[in-house]
Amino acid sequence: MNRTFSLAFLLGILICSQTLFAQNLKNRIQPGKMYNAGDSVYAPRYGLSAKIPQGWVGVLPRETEVFLLNSTSGTFGEIFVFGREKVDLAQLAESWKAGVDVSETVRLKATDPTIEGDLLYSHAEAIGNYLPPKNYRAFAATRCGDACITVLAISEEANAELTSQAALEMLKTAILTTPKEIDPYEGFDWQGFLSGKLLIAFEGFTGGKQQTKVNLCEGGTFQAQISKKGMMKDTNPDYKGTMKGTWTVEGKASEATLTLTFDKEKLAPFVAKLKFTEEELYVNDERHYASQSEKCN
Questions:
Q1: Residue closest to 229 by CA, chosen among 246, 213, 211
Q2: What is the CB neighbour count within 10 angstroms for residue 28?
Q3: Whole-angstrom Cα distance, residue 216 to residue 244?
Q4: In terms of DSSP bridges, do strands 210-216 and 255-262 run parallel, antiparallel, or are they unpaired?
Q5: What pTM was estimated for this model as a whole?
Q6: How many Cα atoms within 13 Å fall on the side-chain side of residue 286?
Q7: What is the pLDDT of residues 82-96, one digit of tens each?
Q8: Contact by Cβ (8 Å): 146, 179
Q9: What is the pLDDT of residues 21-38, one digit of tens each?
Q10: 130, 190, 223, 253: which sits with the fewest CB atoms below 10 Å from its CB?
Q11: CA–CA separation, 93 vs 297, rounded Å?
Q12: CA angle, corner 84, sides to 79 and 88, nearest 5?
C-alpha cells in the first residue's frame, strides 16, 4: 500500500490526535522497543493498559507519537494507536460520516459508523482521484473513558477481517483508568543508568576538544582524566590528570547527586549535581553526554 496514503488516512480520520506513548520508564512504553503478542503496554497519560493481540508485534518508532502494530501473518496489515482528549462519540461519528479531506483530490469517509456504549467503530473508504489499489481496506475505532483511544487498521483485502477484529479486540479488552500526568523520570534508576558509562562534555556542546572524562564502572569504581574544563572546571586544583577511586549516586526522579571519592588520601570527594532537562543530561548545569565506557570492560 502507498505509505503516504496510509499516514494521510491516519491523520485525517482521527482528527486532533494527541501523543499517546511519550512516557517511557518502568512498565510504560519505551520508544524503539519491540513488543510481541501477549505483551502488556501502558500509557498513563491516557490511562490505557492493553495487550498486543496474537499475530501482531508492536513498536513506538523513535521520534514519533503513534504506536504501530504490524501483522506477523505474512500479509500486509498495520494498526495505528492514538490517544486524544475526551470527545462525544455521536459528534465524532458525524464527523467520520461527513468525511475528511486528506488532499485536494482525496476524501475519506466512514461507511458504517456504529456506537456501542463507550465504543465507536466503522469501516472507511476513500473517494476521489489518485486512490490506492482497490485491494486495501481500512477500519477505525475509538473508545472513550476519561480520555479516548483510537485504533486505525489498514490491510490487504484478504487480511481485512482478521486485521479489523484484532484492532477491535485490542480496544475492547483494554483497561481504561484515570489518566495521569506522570513525571517521565519517576523512579528513574540512576545507578543502573550511570553504571558502565563515560561522562563527558565537549566545547561548543556538540563537538570540539574533549573535556574532563569520567568512566563510571559497574563495580562502583571510576577512572577519570581530569582537566579544568567540564564538570571540574571550578573545583579544587588538586583534581587533575589521571585519577581513580569509587563513585556513588543518590537520585530522585530527574535529579541526582554524584560523589567521586578519590584513592588519594586527604583529597576531599568531588560532588556533582546531575539533572535531566528535556531528556538532556546536565552535570553542574553544563551539558554532558553518557556513552558506553571502553575503560570498564
A1: 211
A2: 17
A3: 10
A4: unpaired
A5: 0.60
A6: 18
A7: 888 889 999 999 988
A8: yes
A9: 444 444 577 767 889 999
A10: 130
A11: 59
A12: 110
Q: What 3-state class would DSSP assign to 20? A: coil
d(CA 79, CA 6): 10
- Residues 207 and 204: their CA atoms lie apart, in Å, by 6
- The Cα–Cα gap between 227 and 272 comes to 15
> DSSP letters along 120-166, please?
EEEEEEEEESSPPPTTEEEEEEEEESSSEEEEEEEEEGGGHHHHHHH
Decide: residue 138, CB within 10 A, 0-12 exposed, 13-18 middle, 19+ buried.
buried
| All three cell numbers of 98 | 461527513
CA distance 112 to 121: 8
Across 156-185, b (16+ Cβ under 10 Å) vs e yields beebbebbbebbbebbeebebeebeeeebb
253's CB contacts (< 8 A; 6+ apart) are: 183, 185, 186, 187, 188
Pair 187, 25: CB distance under 8 Å? yes
Are the beta carbons of 196 and 216 closer than 8 angstroms?
Answer: yes
Q: What does the pLDDT look like over 53-75, one tens digit per residue? A: 999 999 887 656 678 899 998 88
CA pair distance 197, 204, nearest whole angstrom: 21
DSSP string, 162-225: HHHHHHHHHHHH-EE-------TTTT--HHHHHTTEEEEEETTTTSSSEEEEEEE-TTSEEEEE
Tell me the C-alpha distance between 137 and 97, whole Å: 17
Q: Are 235 and 227 in contact (CB under 8 A)?
A: no
What three-state secondary structure class fits 52?
A: coil
Place of cell 505483551: 39
